[in-house]
Amino acid sequence: MAFCVARDFGLELPDLFGPTRGTPRVAFARQVAMYLAHVGFQLSLGTISRVFDRDRTTVAHACRVVEDGRDDSWLDWRLEELELFCRWGWGALSQTTREFAR
């Protein structure tokens, strides 16, 4: 999922996991990735905080920021499309993994 977000924002994957906040674009992309992990994939805030090496309250803040931004119809549409793309990619990866497991 982080790969999908990085690709959509035109960033490198390590940018989302960097130790510093980064540029506003990187910070927002990270917030979107955290939000999609929580809302779209039902990962706990604690799990997401460990994956992104951030405090749990930072993850909660990211989710609030992105959720509040969904009032903008363009951002709402973009997030829906991004979540679908991430789900499609996850489904394809799951299928591939099962193929290798046989």
Describe this structure in words.
With 102 residues, this protein is mainly α. It is 78% helix and 0% strand. It is built from six helices and no strands. It has helices at 2-9, 13-16, 24-40, 45-52, 56-69, 73-101. The two termini are 25 Å apart. The model is unreliable at 96-102 (pLDDT under 50).
List the SSEs and their pairings.
Elements: H1 2-9, H2 13-16, H3 24-40, H4 45-52, H5 56-69, H6 73-101
In summary, what is this structure?
With 102 residues, the protein is an all-alpha fold.
pLDDT < 50 runs, ≥5 residues: 96-102
The share of residues in helices is over 70%
Structural class designation: mainly alpha
Shape: globular
- The residue-averaged pLDDT reads 87
Q: Cα distance, first to last residue?
A: 25 Å
Strand content: under 5%
Secondary structure tally, helices? 6
Element-level helix/strand string:
HHHHHH
Rg over C-alpha atoms, rounded to the nearest angstrom: 14 Å
Biggest β-sheet description: none
In total, the number of strands is 0
Note the main attributes of this structure.
disordered C terminus
